[in-house]
Amino acid sequence: MWIITGAGWIGGLVGQALSSTTVDNCYTTGTVTGSANYTGGLVGENVTSSTVSNCYSTASVSGTNYVGGLVGDNYDSSIVSNSYSTGTVSGDNICGGLLGYQF
């Protein structure tokens, strides 16, 4: 089991996926804790046409803003598909069991 801690852009596997990054067929367990924005069980921030697919997280995730069980922040034509999360999620603002923020 992993314990990941940091400030912003914290993910159990990837802190920030950008510019058409693909994260596929993976999973995370353990604890992910961020003390600033963008914390996710798998990916902290998924942006600019990036994709997360066929992944899951059972991690316990906590942070401040943009906190998600799988992805903290997902925007700018990015996609999350065929993925799920089952861990606990806690934060101050903009939190979700799967995605903290979707735009």
**Proportion of strand residues:** over 45%
**Run of helices and strands:** EEEEEEEEEEEEEEEEEE
Shape: globular
Overall mean confidence score, pLDDT: 97
SS-based structural class?
A: mainly beta
Secondary-structure arrangement, i.e. CATH architecture: 3 Solenoid
CATH fold description? Pectate Lyase C-like
Give Rg in angstroms. 11 Å
Quaternary organisation: single chain
Largest sheet, order of strands side by side? 1-6-11-16
User: How far apart are the first and last residues' alpha carbons, in Å?
Assistant: 31 Å
Tell me, what is the CATH class?
Mainly Beta
Tally of helical segments? 0
Number of domains: 1
The counted number of beta strands is 18
Low-confidence segments, ≥5 residues, pLDDT <50? none
The percent range for helix content is under 10%
- Summarize the main sheet: 4 strands, parallel
